[in-house]
Structure formats: C-alpha cells, structure tokens
Amino acid sequence: MLSSQRLRVLLEIFRTGSIAGAARTLRLSPSAVSHQLSKLEEEAGMGLVERGAQSLRLTAAGRRLATRAQEVLDIIEAAEKDLLAQARADAGQLRIGFFASAGYRLLPLALSTFTARHPAVELDLVLGQPHELLPDLERGALDVLVVFEHALDPWKPPEGVEVIHLFDEPQLLVVPPGHPAGQRQRVRLADLAGEPWITTYGTDTPVSVLERASALEGFNPMIRCRSDHYEVTLGLVRAGLGVALVPSLGAQGASGIQVCRLDGPRLYRRIGAATRPTNPNPALRSFIDYLRDASAQIRNALR
C-alpha cells in the first residue's frame, strides 16, 4: 500500500521540480526526501523519477501518480476536517429517534434550545415506535432514541443499550365535554366499566395498557376502536364515541375534551433516552443535557 506521507513528498517534487525545493516546502532535509522517494518507488514497483547529473524529472508514471496524490491528499484532508467537526459538540451530525407524542412538546422544547446553541449540527429525526427503532440504535444508525415504558408493560433494553430516565408521565382519563366523570377530582377505571373505549394497540403485543389496567380493576373493557395516533383517539372522544386512557404528553393542548386524574396502581409511563454508552459523538452528550432540561420543565408542569 502506498504511503500518504510519501505521496506528499512526490507531489512536492512535482510542484517544485527538485528534491531541494520539496525539502524546503516540507521542512525536511534533502536526504530525507530522497529516502522517502526511494521507498515510494519500492512500494510502487517502478521508477517514478529520472535522475540526471544536474536534474531530476518525473517519469510518465511519476507524473500520473503525482496527480493522483493530490486527489488522495484532498480526500484525507476532507476526512480529517469531518473528524474534527464530529469531535466538536457544535458541529457534526446527530440522529434522533422518537415516538409521536414526544414530538408534540418534549422534543421540540429540547431541540429549540439545542439548535440555538449548536446551529451547525446536522439533525436527522426519525419517527417510530421505540420497539421498531431499537435495532437502528443498536447498529449505530441512531445516536439516541426517546423511549417510553409503561409501568404495566415493562421491557428490558438490549445488551449494549442504556436508558437514561427522564420523568414519569401519568396516564389520564379523557372523556367528552359534559361527561359526569369530568366533574370529579379523581376517577377509577372501574367507574367507567360500561363505557365504550378508544384504546391503543399493545407495545409489540396484542394487549393494550388499558386492558392490563382494567384486568386489575376487575373488568373487561368494551373496545370500540384501536389507534396508536392520539389525534384520532382524541377526535373520537371529542365526538362522543367513547372514553380513552391517554398519557399526558398525548393530551397536552387538546381542546374539546375533559381530562381527569385517575386513581389506580402503575398508571403512568416512564420516559427515557436510550443510548449506546460507547457512542463517542460529543453532540449527543450536549443534546441529552437539553433533553433533561426540557423534561424538568414538563415534569414541573405535570404536578
């Protein structure tokens, strides 16, 4: 394999027309330049210069290799600049996976301050369910994944992935305007056992959190519709077609509905940031700090 250092020596000989000129440019002794040139000829397996008593001239192969040397050195320089940018938190790239309701407020809140501080960082945002995007995090296609875990449906991160806990998010009962439950401070799920329900699909299982919570309350909910899109869920509730269990991130800012606090065990989600501890991306560390700040704001608003 040809040495990039020796290619640089050949390129300077080509530019200056002499070993002495190359030595001055490279701040080497003429003998060191001659030695590097000889080594390069050994690596190339052919002569690259014609040596005369008073002159030195590149062969056709030498001239062609010198031209290629410039291309190689340009690529190396670009790679070094990319690495330098990546080594700084205010440049490089950050690839973030997130679930839909994290994109309503949590992620925009974190990214608005992060991008103001690090405008040169290139962002790649990927929307999806945590269990769908975890393989991308494991293989390095994502730097960080904003995740949730239902207390009633816990999961264990795969080996090589660490989840940083951000905050616990309560599940809320969402009912249509004028519903009697909306007039009460606290409600139990069992109080609405006879109501039609709008619920989600399970997290990688056919059983939703509503069904798990209802089983603990001793009833089997009558499910009218399943949707993982909270806009759909809230729209159906708003139209009086049922009631729903919605995490607070999914209900924030919604109009035309009533929101009730629930009494009951483990009716919350844990929100976290999944990362690979071995990931050296410095922009990631800075983003996690802003994500923690955004989480603290949301946590305080939920109290």
From TrEMBL:
Signal peptide: none annotated. Coiled coil: none annotated. Belongs to the LysR transcriptional regulatory family. Keywords: DNA-binding, Transcription, Transcription regulation. This is LysR family transcriptional regulator. SUPFAM superfamilies: Periplasmic binding protein-like II, Winged helix' DNA-binding domain. Residues 1-59 form the HTH lysR-type domain. Pfam families: HTH_1, LysR_substrate. The keyword DNA-binding applies. It comes from the Bacteria. It comes from Streptosporangium amethystogenes subsp. fukuiense. The keyword DNA-binding applies.
